[in-house]
Automatic annotation (TrEMBL):
GO-annotated cellular components: membrane
Organism: Cinchona calisaya
Gene3D superfamilies associated with the record: MFS general substrate transporter like domains (1.20.1250.20)
High-level lineage: Eukaryota, Viridiplantae, Streptophyta, Embryophyta, Tracheophyta
Location within or outside the cell: Membrane
PANTHER family: SOLUTE CARRIER FAMILY 2, FACILITATED GLUCOSE TRANSPORTER, SUGAR TRANSPORT PROTEIN 3
Protein name per its UniProtKB record: Major facilitator superfamily (MFS) profile domain-containing protein
TM stretches of this protein: 20-40, 82-101, 113-132, 138-159, 171-189, 201-223, 286-310, 322-344, 351-373, 385-411, 423-444, 450-473
Amino acid sequence: MAVGFAITSTSEGGNYNGRITSFVVFSCMMATMGGVIFGYDIGISGGVTSMEPFLRKFFPDVYVKMKEDTKISNYCKFDSQLLTSFTSSLYLAGLVSSFFASSLTQAFGRKPSILSGGAAFLAGAALGGAAHNVLMLIFGRILLGIGVGFANQAVPLYLSEMAPPKWRGAINNSFQLSIGIGILIANLINYGTEKIKDDRGWRISLALAAVPAFILTLGALFLPETPNSVIQRSNDHEKAKKLLQRVRGTEDVQAEIDDIIKASEISKTIKHPFKNIIQTKYRPQLVMSIAIPFFQQVTGINVIAFYAPILFRTLGLGESASLMSAVVTGSVGICTTFISMLIVDKVGRRFLLINGGACMFVNQILVGGVIAVKLGDHGGLSKGYAFLVLVLICLYVAGFGLSWGPLGWLIPSEIFPLEIRSAGQSITVAVNFLFTFIVGQTFLTMLCHFKYGLFFFFGGWVALMTAFVFLLLPETKNIPIEQMDKVWREHWFWKKIVQVDNEVTDKIVA
């Protein structure tokens, strides 16, 4: 039985009735397990690469530099292309698989993509936990990447299409929240398994990724398709209407179903979505599908997400203290992402991105300044300054959790019209994975060469992206997803570029 609290969309484009039903809550809880597997892998990979038994077995050169080489710079102890390949190979696999996921999502629906992602991740977790050489380890990472690629392509779309417009921001932000939860769980597990001074510790950390993957795979079997996907694939209006009534908890869904049908009829005229997305009328969406995930990665968040324990060890903290510091930063990320969920549909996307960007910029510059003055090539920070850096990094993570973390997934998932939605989401995921791979693969080398200047480098990007939002990103809160095109037609800059052929559209939907 559907229960919840009533809401009504009061957007200019039309009135949609509905409530937050238990049906929606359960469906979205299952779907956001895709975020948990992503977050768990981010946290686990960063933790195990700082564990001495793991390094001794797979990366002995790094282990020797860390333990025995007293001449090498603090910033260069972990500089190893093989070590970064372990972390970043997942994202290269995710990049490639996201394009295959686009075809699957469009042809067969959001549910099969989520199911495929869970199954591939489950296999990768098993292989990683059983690895006896670097080849097995990296092949397991590739399977994990395929799983994440499929899940990240489908889950944000699923959440945006299931959510009532008024609460779409909060529900979609649950994906980033679940990523944060996955990171925190992984950090806590790493903190515990680090105390096991043999191969069992890191094996347990890697193998436990199978738990959220199993939940996602099993839960996907019971997920319903979205009404948007049902109409797009089968044109069964009655089935879609009944499903939407169940999702919204009300019989009065005619206005929303009419908009979905119109969008579907337009989408069926598009035979090649990747070719059509480059048309002038889709130029704003194309720019955002590239710019937003690019900016999300050059915030420097992966410095914290992937390599937090390594970074804290660079600052002079011990293995256990480094892992606990990662737990602290992960907890801050979860709390601020939850706050973002509560306020994003009230204060809007732009407000959070601009203020979150300012917070991130200030604290990155401060972190770089403290490290520049107090950390040399040898030795470490005093406890007081190490604590100060930890506090500044937590404030930086808080800014990201309020803004670019959740909104980097929310905004791309809600701005595409149905005819290019799957293609647009694939571009978003691919760009995200591409630059995640680049940052992941180059960070340790950049840390070795840039040293403290790395924080100023990422701070410059944060300043640029905040200006980009201020000038070029329109507000999208409370706009029905099938009527999102109006925000571009009314924007001071994009209205000069967007050319909508209203006569053709009217003929199609008549």
